[in-house]
Design goal:
There is one protein chain. The protein is an alpha/beta fold and 536 residues long. It has 3 domains: 11-87 and 248-331 and 481-533, FAD/NAD(P)-binding domain (3-Layer(bba) Sandwich), CATH 3.50.50.60; 121-199 and 201-242, no CATH class; 336-417 and 420-460, 2-Layer Sandwich (Guanine Nucleotide Dissociation Inhibitor, domain 2), CATH 3.30.519. Helix content is 35%, strand content 18%. It is built from 17 helices and 20 strands. Strands 1, 2, 11, 12, 13, 14 and 20 form a 7-stranded mixed beta sheet that branches. A 7-stranded mixed beta sheet has the order 7-6-16-17-18-15-19. 53% of the residues are buried.
Length: 536
């Protein structure tokens, strides 16, 4: 879609800083409510980390975020995103290749999946469906948490007390086993939690890998079981545990949100970096752009992460010292990289399986628990993983529109690539090529002809992600999803309800409840909270 290069007015009801998907969702809801809204994005392309770009001629890369799972179905309905071009193609498989073996494929068909797992463990095969049902029940409890603003446990406001009671009732409705299971999820490591159910590799490490996505933690680190649930509760069009590709690339989600916002009357400008929030007498009254332009607004809403918002766009002098201290302690710790490949053909995984159906979903490189933990060990000491945990997708198998006829796109999410490498983050450009080679070397162990297929590549360290998107330390969730940074503690205690210590300044993105992922919930909840409380 076309965007403007300058605003049509000098004054708005609300200015949204950042054209990521959450900022665009927030802008759409506010505009739908009749507010005069402007969204400003520093890059020439909308989407933030949920963006699609033709980095190699003819090949559309989902540059950063690459799959859809958590996007809230009510947002799709309420903003009529299907009318604005959103199409989700369900992912059909999860495949764990094993050199010299057919590997393990988990299919949409439960019976077929159990037969696959039984090759490695009949016990695991018999428990797999029961595990899925239990996680589904927990996901439905968590759905109530992520679809409402975080409660404030220290408040004596009757409305807040009622919310806590309602959550308590939902928890009470579980039987004893489910209550214990929920507590374990909030405290255990992904591996320890899963080992209470399963015994075999590669099933265990491939499932546990979901617990480390976007965190600087290992699969044996306490707290990663919750991150596993966070990724497990994917929901597309009301179907739990549904993952998919956005047709045309992940950026089409953001563009559908942008079209919806514009249809409701919002304005969007790109190539418009914000230098600072304009504050007068302790209140946000607009923004100052890097080009010197000033735009006034009754309300300013940041779609940027907490670090950038408060320490850079606002400044410490405008904020309470205690709040600044908490923001400085907020953990970003970028730990993920990305390698995007333009391919002349689909690489041969030499697994003996006919056809390509098993490659149409997620391909996980996690052959053993020790393998994934060793990858973390290297990162702990300031090195990228030489044999990393990889989440690979080949979206062109399901969506031919992202590559020329007969050619393909491969996207590899890489864990671990610490922002703070031993030599210092600024040395990442010197290590980028070696990092990319390590990823390709790892894929080559499973698909020996991968190098013969590569036409071109894009290698992104967390340093590159930070430079391109502005995400502090390149953290894809705008801060880790660790227990002390969830719900009413996200981003910090007493400021989890999208407000900030600056009157008229709100937050609307992944650094707020309910956190990261391409879900749109922070943008939706921020807008609805502002409208309800008269904040705009």
């Amino acid at each position: 879609m076309k965007t403007a290069s300058k605003p049509n007015s000098s004054t708005y009801d609300a200015i949204v800083i950042g054209g990521g998907h959450n900022g665009l969702v927030c802008a759409a809801y506010l505009a739908k409510a009749g507010k005069k809204v402007l969204a400003v994005e520093k890059r020439p392309v909308l989407g933030g980390a949920a963006v699609s770009e033709e980095t190699v001629p003819g090949f559309t890369f989902s540059t950063f975020s690459y799959v859809v799972s958590l996007f809230r179905p009510q947002i799709i309905r309420q903003l009529d995103l299907v009318k604005h071009g959103l199409q989700i193609i369900p992912m059909e498989t999860t495949y764990n290749p094993i050199p010299g073996d057919a590997g393990l494929v988990r299919w949409a068909d439960g019976g077929r999946t159990r037969n696959e797992i039984a090759r490695f463990s009949k016990k695991d095969a018999s428990l797999y469906s029961e595990f899925g049902l239990s996680m589904g029940r927990l996901s439905r409890f968590t759905k109530n948490v992520i679809d409402t603003p975080a409660p404030e446990p220290a408040s004596l406001n009757p409305k807040e007390l009622f919310k806590l009671l309602k959550m308590g009732k939902l928890f009470k409705d579980f039987d004893a086993d489910m209550r214990y299971l929920n507590v374990k999820l909030m405290t255990m490591s992904a591996v320890d939690f899963l080992e209470e159910w399963f015994e075999s590799e590669p099933l265990l490490p491939s499932m546990a890998g979901s617990g480390i996505i976007g965190t600087f933690l290992g699969i044996r680190s306490p707290g990663t079981a919750y991150v596993l649930l966070h990724h497990y509760m994917g929901e597309i069009d009301g179907a739990f545990r549904a993952w998919g590709f956005s047709k045309g690339g992940t950026g089409q989600i953001s563009l559908a949100c942008a079209r919806a916002a514009v249809s409701f009357g919002a304005e969007i400008i790109t190539d418009a970096a914000v230098e600072r929030v304009k504050i007068r007498n302790g209140r946000a009254v607009g923004v100052v752009l890097e080009n010197g332009g000033e735009i006034n607004a009754r309300t300013v809403i940041s779609g940027l992460d907490p670090n950038r918002t408060f320490l850079k766009l606002v400044g410490e002098d405008e904020l309470p010292a205690s709040f600044v201290g908490q923001i400085k302690r907020y953990k970003n710790r970028g730990s993920s990289g990305k390698v995007n490949l333009a391919l002349s053909r689909v690489p041969n995984f030499e697994d003996g399986r006919p056809g390509l159906q098993h490659l149409k979903g997620d391909i996980t490189i996690a052959p053993s628990i020790d393998y994934v933990e060793r990858a973390y060990d290297e990162a702990k000491y300031g090195e990228f993983s030489r044999r990393p945990f990889l989440n690979i997708v080949i979206p062109s198998l399901s969506d031919p529109s992202v590559a020329p006829p007969g050619k393909h796109v491969l996207s590899a999410f890489v864990q671990y690539a610490p922002y703070n490498i031993r030599e210092g983050a600024g040395k990442w450009p010197e290590k980028r090529e070696a990092f990319g080679d390590a990823v390709i070397d790892t894929i080559e162990e499973y698909a020996p002809d991968i190098r013969d297929c590569i036409i071109d590549k894009q290698v992104l360290s967390p340093w590159d992600i930070e430079k391109m998107t502005g995400l502090t330390e390149g953290n894809i969730f705008q801060g880790e999803l660790s227990l002390e940074q969830l719900a009413f503690l996200r981003p910090v205690a007493e400021w989890s309800r999208y407000r900030s210590p600056i009157n008229g300044l709100w937050m609307c993105a992944s650094g707020t409840h309910p956190g990261g992922g391409v879900m749109g919930a922070p943008g939706e909840l921020a807008a609805k909270t502002m409208l309800k409380e008269g904040g705009v």
